[in-house]
Amino acid sequence: MSVIQIEDVSRWYGNVVAVNGITMTVGPGVTGLLGPNGAGKSTLIHMMGGFLEPSSGGLTLDGKPIWRNPSVYRHVGLVPERESAYDFLTGEQFIVSMAKLHGLADPGAAARRAIGRVEMEYAAGRPVGTYSKGMKQRIKMASALVHDPAVLLLDEPFNGMDPRQRLQLMDLIRQMAAEGRTILFSSHILEEVERLATHIEVIVSGRHAASGDFREIRRLMTDRPHLFALRSSDDRALAAAIIADGSARAVRLTDQGLEVETTDFARFTRLIPQLAKKAEIRLWELSPSDESLESVFSYLVGK
Ligand SMILES: Nc1ncnc2c1ncn2[C@@H]1O[C@H](COP(=O)(O)OP(=O)(O)OP(=O)(O)O)[C@@H](O)[C@H]1O
C-alpha cells in the first residue's frame, strides 16, 4: 500500500504560478483530482511522478523523496494527457521498449501481460498511428503498467473517449484499485470523478480548494448561490410571484427577462413551474446562467 505525501508544494513557470502551496495525501484507492482547465492538475501530476521538480516544498512516496530518486520511479506509472508513442511502432514494440527502459528481466513477457491487462492483444501487431483515441489511451495505460507499479497517475484519461470506452476504462481502474494500488486521475468533469473516485481533491488556480468525499464536494457546489435566467409571457408578474414566495435571494428585471439568484437549486427548479401555473404565466425559458465550471470552482475558493 503506497502513500504519496505532498507538502506545501509550489511550481512556477517564469511569472506563472501553476501550483501554489498545495498540501495533500494520496493513499490507496481511487482519488479524483478535479479542477478546471489550467488549474495546475498536469503540473501536480508530473511532480508526483518525478518528471518535474517542485519550485518549493516536497513530495514523498512512502516517506522517500520523489524528485531525482529512480528507486521511487519503479513504483510509479504515469499516463500523460498527450500522445506518448511513436506512430510507426506497433503497440507491442512500444510496450516492449518501455519494459526495456525499466530494465525488466523479461521485457516480452511483461509487455504481453500489460497488453493483456488493457485487452489490446488483438491490435498489438498494428502501428499505434492506426489506433483510435480510445485504443491509444489503452496502450498508454499498458506502457504505465508494464512494470506493475503500486501507484498509477492518469492525466485526463477519459478525454476524447466514447461512452463505451469510458466504461471499460473505469472498470479497469476499479479493478486495479481493488488490487491495492494507489490511483490518481485528473478530470475537469465532476460526474466522471463522482462515478469513479472514492476520494476527491479539488484544485483551482493552482490552489487546493476542497478535499473529501464527493457528497461533501457536491453539497459545497450545490449550496452556493445559483443564478437563473428566465423568460415568460409576463416577467413582471412572475417576479412578483417569486418575491412573494420568498424562495429567491434576489430578483432582477433585465432587457432579456428575469435574473433570479437562489441558494436552493433543487427547490427552485421544482417551484418555478408551479408558481407560473398558478399565476397563469407561460414559462418560455428557465436556464442556469452561471453553470460554467469556472464559476462553480471559483465559488469553492471563495473568489
Ligand atoms: N511549460 C510551461 N510553461 C509555462 N507555463 C506553463 C507550462 N505548463 C503549464 N503552464 C501554465 O501553468 C498553469 C497550470 O497548467 P496545467 O497544465 O498544470 O493545468 P491543468 O489543470 O492540467 O490544465 P489542463 O487540463 O488544461 O491541462 C497554466 O496557467 C499553464 O498555462
Automatic annotation (TrEMBL):
Keywords for this protein: ATP-binding, Nucleotide-binding, Transport
Record Pfam families: ABC_tran
Ranges of residues in domain ABC transporter: 4-230
Leader sequence segment: none
Alphabetized InterPro entries for the sequence: AAA+_ATPase, ABC_transporter-like_ATP-bd, ABC_transporter-like_CS, P-loop_NTPase
GO molecular function annotation: ATP binding
Family of the protein in this entry: Belongs to the ABC transporter superfamily.
Protein name according to UniProt: ABC transporter ATP-binding protein
